[in-house]
Amino acid sequence: MNTDIEVLIAGAGPTGLLLANELGLAGVRAAVVERLPQRTGQSKALNLQPRTAEVLDCRGWLEPVLDRSLALLPAGHFAGLPLDYSALDTTFPHQVGIPQARVEEFLEDHLAEYGVPVLRGRELTSFRQDEDGVTTTLLGPDGAECTVRAAYLVGADGGRSTVRRVLGMPFPGRDGRVGMAVADVELAAAQGESDGSGEPWRLPDLSPDPAGVAFLLPLGGGVHRLILGGPEQQGVDRDAPVTADEVRAALARCPGPPRELRAIRWASRFTDASRQAERYADGRVLLAGDAAHIHAPAGGQGLNLGMQDAFNLGWKLAAVTRGWAPDGLLATYHAERHPVGARVLANTRAQMVLTLPDPDAVAVRELLADLLTAPEANRRVAAMIAGTDIRYPMPGAPDHPLLGARAPGLRLPSGHGTLLADAASAVAAAAAGWAGRIVRPDRGPAADSGEALLVRPDGYVCWAGRDDDADGLRAALTRWFGAPRNPTVRSGGPSRAVDASG
Ligand SMILES: Cc1cc2nc3c(=O)[nH]c(=O)nc-3n(C[C@H](O)[C@H](O)[C@H](O)COP(=O)(O)OP(=O)(O)OC[C@H]3O[C@@H](n4cnc5c(N)ncnc54)[C@H](O)[C@@H]3O)c2cc1C
After folding, report:
1. Ligand 1, residues 138, 157, 312: which to mutate, most atoms within 8 A of Cβ?
2. Exposure check for the chain: N or C terminus, fewer CB within 10 A?
3. Alpha helix locations (H) across 302-386?
């Protein structure tokens, strides 16, 4: 039995892999177990929203991900209604067009830097937790079982999560009402026409149509992503193969030149089932990503939601395993992320209604389409889908515009908290006892502004105040970063800047 692992992650999807990177960055002994013996190269999701791009950027991981991308769109959509991302307050006002498999490939390759293993061909089948840890049972590629013990287990094992099932965690919500399918297809264009591979990416047309949804996105190399959802996809078993006839019928409905189906590389059915785990944590077991929530892929949010769960959870689990977490830190994972997930479930349900060919739904859609021509309305919905408007409840001045919001454009490559304050300020001196958990970069607010900000490792501002408010900062540091290492450094004590500037 291996007892050396601090955090075991079940599932090497985007959620599990980003979490593993966060833990690796913090020096946590983590491991990922993945049921599949190798990467499939298949992609459900095809995009990163601006907040996810910011998340990767603040660790310095965006550039290599962009190198693998296919398109950049200055827009998102709500049920196909365009949202202008150029109006967002972000350093990255784009949706990145990138197959999920390429994001996973980057994240898995990057884990080598930290020595965090991805143990493939190992399926987590059961576990039991006690006061000190979790003993998991894994089924290996040869059919042999083994047990692995870890201090914490994270279920990032997708919508049909074994971890969630073994926990017996309620997963309230509803089953799917609308059936759809996705197929990556090789196409031959009619004579004289291009196969469309070089076409720019467009937002999907989700206008209600009794014949159903059918749209194509070029993935390069003559391969296209086809999304189809019409009468023939309703009431079909989710595991039934997608047929060539279904694909041809949908292709015939796609706008543009007629295209001949050469081959289906991969196809799968999905629905608009909408469910959310009642709690994201139970003792030493946590749920993240699709294991914690499922919903329709409307607007392109699921992968993004999961990666942002991972980013919220990573530094908190690291703090717990490193031994400096304040009481209740881990509980803030559920408290902060459950409402964010609930909001995505609500907006995806609303989007699905707006795609129905029902005259009443069409009337609401027309009204919303009109409202979204107003810049402020468009910006608000855009910020929701982009994930840039998330504000976590934080104690402190509720009217401060940044408290609880993310600090855009801030690089946090070390994964530490960050104090933005003048080096000579009282708060910089007060932070000395938290060196090693927070850093103070040279460039912060203007030296003479008198303002200071404390930013968590996930980029959210957890304290905002005057740079002479040493007591206020100390309270915030203790709340988020635990007790100081040297509690003798108190107000009125020796003035020392935090020595871990970076
Ligand atoms: C058709 C479709 C289109 C989509 N498009 C988008 C989009 O454009 N944008 C977007 O943001 N989202 C989209 N999504 C949603 C997105 O794909 C998911 O939200 C995302 O994959 C969730 O990532 P995850 O890591 O939480 O789970 P998963 O990607 O499901 O990964 C879970 C991993 O766990 C493994 N696993 C499962 N059980 C076990 C076990 N017992 N032991 C070990 N390993 C296990 C699985 O093999 C898998 O590798 C789409 C979804 C669908 C169905």
Report:
1. 157
2. N
3. 302-322, 331-354, 359-371, 375-386
Tell me the torsion sign for CA atoms 155, 160, 162, 168: positive
**Is the CB of residue 500 less than 8 Å from the CB of residue 423?**
no
| H or E stretch covering 102 | helix 100-111
- In DSSP terms, which residues pair with 263 in a beta bridge? 186
The full DSSP string for 189-210 is EPTTS--STTPPP--------T
Percentage of the chain exceeding pLDDT 90: 85
Return the residue whose CA atom lies nearest to atom 52 of ligand 1.
44
pLDDT: which is higher, 28 or 206: 28
pLDDT at residue 500 above 80? no
The residue among 385, 183, 423, 202 whose CA lies nearest residue 304 is 385
Sorted by where each starts, the structural domains of the chain and their CATH numbers stand as: 2-172+275-386 (3.50.50.60), 179-271 (3.30.70.2450), 394-502 (3.40.30.120)
Residue 319: name the closest of 15, 17, 7 by CA: 7
> Residue 479 — φ and ψ, nearest 5°?
-65, -40
Q: Which atom of ligand 1 is nearest to the CA of 301?
A: 11
Sheet holding 438-439, edge to edge: 438-439, 417-420, 451-455, 461-466
Atom of ligand 1 nearest to the CA of 17: 25
Tokens (6 digits) for 203: 């937002």
Of 198, 261, 257, which Cα lies nearest the Cα of 226?
A: 261
Helix axes of 331-354 and 375-386: crossing angle, nearest 10 degrees: 130
Place of tokens 């077991």: 285
DSSP state letters, 122-163: -EEEEEEE-SS-EEEEEE-TTS-EEEEEEEEEEE---TT-HH
> Which residues have CB under 6 Å of ligand 1?
10-16, 33-36, 44-47, 100, 123-124, 156-158, 162, 182, 270, 289-290, 297, 300-304, 306
Phi-psi region of 35 (alpha: psi -120 to 50; beta: other; left: phi over 0): alpha
Could you tell me which residues are beta bridge partners of residue 181? 228, 269
- In 3D, which of 299, 175, 287 has the Cα closest to residue 238? 175
Determine the distance separating the centroid of ligand 1 and the alpha carbon of 185, expressed in angstroms: 20
Element (H, E) at 100: helix 100-111
Average pLDDT over residues 479-495: 65
Which protein residue has the closest C-alpha to ligand 1 atom 31? Answer: 13
For residue 245, what is the enclosing H or E element?
Answer: helix 244-253
Average pLDDT over residues 360-372: 97
